[in-house]
Design a protein that fits this description.
Elements lengths: L19 H71 L2 H25 L6 H25 L1
Amino acid sequence: MRQVETKPGPSRHSTANWTIGRKLGWCLASLGFLLAAVSVASLLTLGQLRSTLENTANRETQRLLLASSINKQTAALRASVRALILDAALDEANDLKKDRETFYHQGKEIEEQIAKLQPLLDRPDSLQALKEISTAWTGWKGWVDEMVG
């Protein structure tokens, strides 16, 4: 007896017997699903990017405001030192006392601004510049104490 080879027939899940319309329908459905998945992923990433951008912008704005405030206070501090020198040279006791109070008030504001700015800085050169400002203020304070008494 001769054995007859039987080929298995197409399975129920095989796409060999699908019509072109059915195949196109599945392709469009798959494409729609992938498009929806990519859209959702893009929207989530965009939300995270927006949040990161807002945080960075707020942080940079704070840095700039504090740095400009320190710059303004430093200019006012220099003017106070000039006024102190002039008052000491002219022996104006009342003006000397008033200018000394102004000097220390401005110095205190600089110390406050430095304390607020320091946690916002992350680069070593920025931290070094802030340390130099703080050291300069300490030197000025000692010089004024020595000069005015």
